[in-house]
Amino acid sequence: METLTSTHHFDASARTWDCDPVKQARALAVAEGIRSLVPIGPHMHALEYGCGTGLLSFALQPHLEHISLADSSEGMLAVLEEKITANRITNMHSRQLDLVTDPLPAERYDLIYTLMTCHHIQDTTGLLRNLHTLLASSGHLCLADLDAEDGSFHGQGFSGHNGFDRGALGAIAESVGFRDIRFATVFRMTKGEGPDAKEYPVFLMVARK
Ligand SMILES: C[S@@+](CC[C@H](N)C(=O)[O-])C[C@H]1O[C@@H](n2cnc3c(N)ncnc32)[C@H](O)[C@@H]1O
Q1: H-helix or E-strand containing 13?
Q2: Looking at ligand 1, which residue's alpha carbon is closest to its atom 4?
Q3: What is the whole-number distance in angstroms between the Cα of residue 98 and the centre of ligand 1?
Q4: Does the CB atom of residue 52 touch ligand 1 within 6 A?
Q5: d(CA 117, CA 143)
Q6: Residues near 17 by Cβ (< 8 Å), separated by ≥ 6?
Q7: What are the boundaries of each domain within the chain?
Q8: pLDDT tens string 68-109
Q9: pLDDT tens-digit series, residues 21-47
Q10: Distance 194 CA to ligand 1 centre (A)
Q11: What is the largest CA-CA distance in the chain?
Q12: Which CATH number does 7-208 carry?
């Protein structure tokens, strides 16, 4: 069955993903948050996990040496590849990777970042453990996602996490070996209008290996 967490759902959304100005603004805000909280530099090798069409990495690309962009959705990766080619970008490379089912890659990264992806993955502890393993010594993880919400963000048919409680997520990160864990609010999304309008903050968790 296709659900709001399935690869088919993201394959089908890929062509129109960048048409949404909120997704564009969200990626730029998260990029600003990462740059203000992490000393990123032109010698660094980064991994974006759950990259979609690469909105966040396009904003960070001028400041990093190399970025691997990983996603499980072929549709997202096809759109990403077209954008990399059209923009003649030489330091971004895509790969199909699902850390839930695939073996861990051998590479290690100075920086790993992920935006609005972790709430689609059931096993948060397993995911954070894998991301910790993929970081080089003293590397940084930047995890941006929804704060805990009442399920109205995705609505019916969604089987992932209804956002994350910051304290609980920080405790999981600590339990798999992360340190210096900090949170900031980097963006706010709104759904609905007038008295029905509801706000969904997006946090950025920064942690060190
Ligand atoms: C809400 S989208 C966010 C895309 C992009 N980060 C952005 O903010 O525009 C979630 C992305 O995570 C990817 N994804 C979901 N589960 C995944 C998994 N297990 N492994 C890799 N990617 C996954 C989806 O294919 C999708 O591209």
Answers
A1: helix 7-13
A2: 52
A3: 10
A4: yes
A5: 9
A6: 23, 52, 53, 55, 76, 79
A7: 7-208
A8: 999 999 999 999 999 999 999 999 999 999 999 999 999 999
A9: 999 999 999 999 999 999 999 999 999
A10: 30
A11: 51
A12: 3.40.50.150
